[in-house]
Amino acid sequence: MDQILLTRIAEALERMSPAPLAAPDFDAAAAFVWHVAPDRLEPVAQVNRIDLDLLVGIGRSRDTLLENTRRFARGEAANNALLWGARGMGKSSLVKAIHGGLLVDHPDLKLIELQREDLPSVARLLNHLRQAPHRFILFCDDLSFSHDDQHYKSLKAVLDGGIEGRPENVVFFATSNRRHLMPREMIENERSSAINPSEAVEEKVSLSDRFGLWLGFHPCDQDEYLEMISGYCKAYGVNVDADVMRAEAIEWQATRGARSGRVAWQFFTDLAGRHGVSLT
C-alpha cells in the first residue's frame, strides 16, 4: 500500500514539474507549433499557406518583410516585425508565404508558431533555439493585450532578450489589429485616471516600439478585391466568365459588408466549389 501511495505522489510531482524538453529534432519539419504542459515543439507536416504572388494589395509591406526575412535567413542583421491593421488583409498569410518562398534557398529557416497565452514560457523556448544550428522565425498571430493582461512582460524576453540578449538566430514576427497592441479605450482610461498619465501607459504602449518594423495593412479597394479573386481563379484553374465573376463577387462583398483578402478567398472558395474544383 505504501508503494502505491509513493508511486502516486511521484506521478503527481512529475505532472506539476515535468521533465525538461529533450533537444528537438529541427530537421523533422520546416515549421513547428510550441505547446506547454508539457513543453514540446510539434512538427507541422504541411503548413497552411498560399503562394506569395497571390497576395494582392500589400506590395510595399510584402517587399519590406521579404527583404528583412531574406537578410535574416542569410545570417545578416534583421528586425523584429509587427504587422498591424485591417482584418483579413493577409498579415498572417504573408508571414507564412514568405517563409515558404525562402525555404528553397534557405532550408534551415524554421517557422515556429507561438500562442499569446504561452508567452510566459518563451524563455524556455529561447533556451532551446539559442543552441540550435538553424534560424528561427517566432510567429505570434493576432497579438493583443487587455487592461489586466501581464503577458506583455514575457514578450520583452523575445524583443529585448534580457541580460543575454535575443538569440542571434531568432527573429519575432507578430500580427495584430492594433498598432499599439492594446485597446484605444484602455489607453485613454489609464491616462485619465492615473496620477502620472504618461507613465501609466508608457510601459505597454512602448512595447510596440520595440519592433524594428511596423508594417501597416489597410482595407483594399474594389479593383484589388477583384484582382485577388482573378488571381485565385488563374492559380487553381477555375474558368468563369469575367463579367459573371465580377457581378457575383461584388454581390458577395456587399452581403458581407466588407472587402478584404479574407472575403475574396471566401467568395473564391464558394465559386470553386460550385465549379467542382478542389482546393487541396
Question: What's the SSE blueprint?
Answer:
Blueprint: H1 2-16, E1 31-35, E2 40-44, H2 59-73, E3 81-85, H3 91-102, E4 109-113, H4 122-130, E5 135-140, H5 151-159, E6 170-176, H6 184-193, H7 197-205, E7 213-217, H8 222-236, H9 242-256, H10 261-274
Parallel strand pairs: 1-4, 3-6, 3-7, 4-5, 5-6
Antiparallel strand pairs: 1-2
Helix pairs in contact: 2-3, 6-7, 8-9, 8-10, 9-10
Structure, briefly:
By secondary structure, the protein is an alpha/beta fold. The chain has helices spanning 2-16, 59-73, 91-102, 122-130, 151-159, 184-193, 197-205, 222-236, 242-256, 261-274, and strands at 31-35, 40-44, 81-85, 109-113, 135-140, 170-176, 213-217.
| Rg over CA atoms | 22 Å
> Helical percent range?
40-55%
Helix-strand makeup class: alpha/beta
Largest sheet: 7 strands, mixed
CATH-level-4 superfamily name of the largest domain: P-loop containing nucleotide triphosphate hydrolases
Ends distance: 56 Å
Top-tier CATH class of the largest domain: Alpha Beta
* Spatial order of strands in the largest sheet: 2-1-4-5-6-3-7
Give the overall shape.
Answer: globular
Task: Return the domain count.
Answer: 2
SSE order in H/E notation? Answer: HEEHEHEHEHEHHEHHH
The tally of helices reads: 10
